[in-house]
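To: structure subgroup
Subject: Chain for Friday's discussion

All,

I'm putting the inputs and outputs inline so they're searchable in the archive.
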Amino acid sequence: MKFLNIRGLTAAIATFCVTATSSLAADVTMNVGFGAPEASIYGRFGKHFENFVEEYSGGSIDVKLRCCNQIATEDEAFKAMQLGTVDGFFITANNVSPHWSLMDVTVLPYIFQNTAHLDRVLNGEVGQFMKDKLQEDTSVHLLAFGPALYRDFYNSVRPINEMADMQGLKIRVPKNEVMIATFEAFGANPVPLAWSETPTALQTGTVDGGDNGTSFIRDMKFYEFEPHLVILEHFVAFAPLFASDAFMKRLNDDQIAIIQKAATAAGAALAKEVATETEEIRNWLATEGGMAMTTPDKTDFVEAAKTVQNAFAQKRDAEFVELVQKIQAAAN
């Protein structure tokens, strides 16, 4: 009887060891990077994602957030994910375009008529088509578009009350064809710069101004040396969460579902938070931040933007034109 108990105990220990080993083998760490401070919109998106992943996985998937270009710069991160050297990254949509040109449809000036239109695009059939197509073309997974914010314009030279006031201003723009063409159409002199170079260029006067999502202007403290805030709402800014194919292939089906569910939930949670923040932050910038805020008539800007939309529709391929048409159709 004693012999049987020892045998049973030995079997139980062996079963426990196999189970424990399997459990440990299932544990996954995902390093997710972004180029801004922890308190930025990227960091907040990331924190929601981290919390939801932990909740849904019971702690078996550990998300580690790496702010401030710790694992890559925003301009390098997409290629790094293609190579499999970075697990995940938040990248502003316009900085994806050099790697996947179809993303430029979302960068076109005044392409979204309103917030409802934008929501129907990103969270509907068009958004899913873009996710699938991106993965097919580049191998990178777009997990969630995240909340969308308008880019506000700022400069250190003068207030902007009409489009003619843009004439000759040296404006930092991302290395994105659409954004360069847009500011040229507005009459400014765009200067393409990587995000990592931008704060210094603004502070030293190498450029006169730029544009960012409203919260970024505050998070980066640009109000300290850019006195003029201009509400143009010419571009919509959103920073999707991406993951490398190499990372996703380390997951089983249940873990993939958890990552995707957590990304969607994180985007929705942050969208609720930022729904009212744009006006609050603009008011803060114009009061405590000390910026002089103007809201010019957009008629001339919208007309100039149409020339950019038409020009890019003509120079890009049929696939690009079809996607633009799908976005326009979603407005109805």
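Points worth raising on Friday:
The chain has two domains: 28-149+238-277, 150-236+278-329.
The longest strand covers residues 148-155.

D.
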